[in-house]
Amino acid sequence: MQSDPSQPIVSFDDVHLTYDGERDVLRGTRMSLGTGDFRFLTGPSGAGKTSLLKLIYAAHRPTSGSVEVFGHDLSAMPADEMPKLRRRIGVVFQEFRLLDHLTAFENVALPMRVLGVSPNNYRDDVVELLSWVGLAHRIDAQPTVLSGGEKQRVALARALVSKPDLILADEPTGNVDPVMGEKIMRLLLELNRLGTAVVVATHDLGLVRGLKQPILRLKDGQVNLHAPIQDEPQAVAGAAQ
Ligand SMILES: Nc1ncnc2c1ncn2[C@@H]1O[C@H](COP(=O)(O)OP(=O)(O)OP(=O)(O)O)[C@@H](O)[C@H]1O
């Protein structure tokens, strides 16, 4: 399932999403995402950021309109092809929690086990990923003894183990202190520099401001693309003289 780099990897055309027949969350949303793009997804609480990410992951279906991912119209995609598509998408969602009875290693390895990949083909990758997120020393620890930031980083490693082309992260810095939040974001930016497209839904405007990446702003059911926020020019002492 290769995609043409000149084509969008995600494309929403006139997408409506209505819950319970009355709550209009998306109202004719149009947007696209290209290979290797980085986008923050911002908007007021309840605007529909999580819902939008779930549409991309095909965890929800639109009420109307079309969602294409890696060139496939999701509404026309046979159910048995979904796992192959999802393998190309790494997700860090609040509700995809780590499993407490598994170690950090086993949690990160889980997507590969589910896909039926032999341990010989993922063991080194799992160890490398856990080292990359700074958790080589916690590889055998279970989530119950990990801090919030450590758990977030295990979840990030798990999202990356299938070498996805696209990462969807929903408030990945939500439960961690600002230093850890910045570290997680730097890891995502580094991945993006290596060619992975990344969408990060966040309320943390400090991060959005600091990292200077383009912003998808979701408001009133519509998505608009904004340029990175630039710092205000600093007043230069004596400049007026
Ligand atoms: N499965 C569902 N069934 C019914 N309503 C839902 C469902 N999921 C979300 N909603 C509603 O849809 C709206 C958008 O929710 P969503 O979680 O997508 O927003 P959000 O922008 O991610 O919010 P937040 O920033 O607070 O996390 C909210 O009003 C929410 O209550």
TrEMBL record:
InterPro entries: AAA+_ATPase, ABC_transporter-like_ATP-bd, ABC_transporter-like_CS, ABC_transpr_LolD-like, Cell_div_FtsE, MacB-like_ATP-bd, P-loop_NTPase
A Pfam family assignment: ABC_tran
One Gene Ontology CC term in the entry: plasma membrane
Lipid bilayer topology: Peripheral membrane protein
Location in or out of the cell: Cell inner membrane; Cell membrane
Gene Ontology process terms (BP): cell division
Gene3D superfamilies assigned to the protein according to its UniProt record, in alphabetical order: P-loop containing nucleotide triphosphate hydrolases
Record flagged with keyword Acetylation: no
UniProt KW keywords: ATP-binding, Cell cycle, Cell division, Cell membrane, Membrane, Nucleotide-binding, Transport
An example Gene Ontology molecular-function term: ATP hydrolysis activity
All residue ranges annotated as the ABC transporter domain in the record: 10-239
Main location: membrane
Subunit structure of this chain's protein: Homodimer. Forms a membrane-associated complex with FtsX.
Purpose: Part of the ABC transporter FtsEX involved in cellular division. Important for assembly or stability of the septal ring.
Family, as annotated: Belongs to the ABC transporter superfamily.
PANTHER family named among the record's database cross-references: CELL DIVISION ATP-BINDING PROTEIN FTSE, IMPORT ATP-BINDING PROTEIN
Protein name: Cell division ATP-binding protein FtsE
Organism expressing this protein natively: Parvularcula maris
Gene name per UniProt: ftsE
